[in-house]
Amino acid sequence: MEKISVFMDDYRSPPDGYVFVETIDECIELLRKFDIEHLSLDHDLISKTRNGTMLVQMMIDEKLFANRITIHSANSVAGKGMYNHFKQAQKDLIMPPTIIVSLRPLPLKFIPPRVLQHYMDVM
Fold first, then answer.
1. Can you give the residue ranges of every domain in the chain?
2. What pTM, to 2 d.p., does this model score?
3. What are the distances in angstroms from CA 118 to CA 6, 53, 92?
4. Among 35, 29, 26, 36, which Cα is nearest to 6's?
5. 81-92 burial string, b = 16+ CB within 10 Å, else e?
6. Residue ranges of the Cyclic-phosphate processing Receiver domain (predicted)?
7. What angle do CA 2, 28, 121 make, to 5 degrees?
8. Do 100 and 15 meet the contact criterion of CB atoms below 8 Å apart?
9. Which terminal residue of the chain has fewer beta carbons within 10 Å of its beta carbon, N or C?
């Protein structure tokens, strides 16, 4: 199965080499069809009801994971909630403990080069 990295956001542009998706439906489709090396997730999307938290719950329910997951949402409360859902799934042995989950909020306007290094380490 082909390995890809995915960046889900409706505002920011993805780092080079990432497949860009704007909705949770697009993201779930890729999780079902590909081996995802790195998945970077935003919370607040165009749809106010179909957001990152809903995606995380779908991923846990269907056991669809990536090798590495980053929550990059600037929404600190929702981003931390997404992170905590993944960590709880690991504690509950639903999600493998080998999956690295990171909480690294990205600013909306400018992404400093040192922050992008987190994404370049995947390549």
1. 3-120
2. 0.88
3. 14, 22, 27
4. 36
5. bbbebbeebeee
6. 4-87
7. 50
8. no
9. N
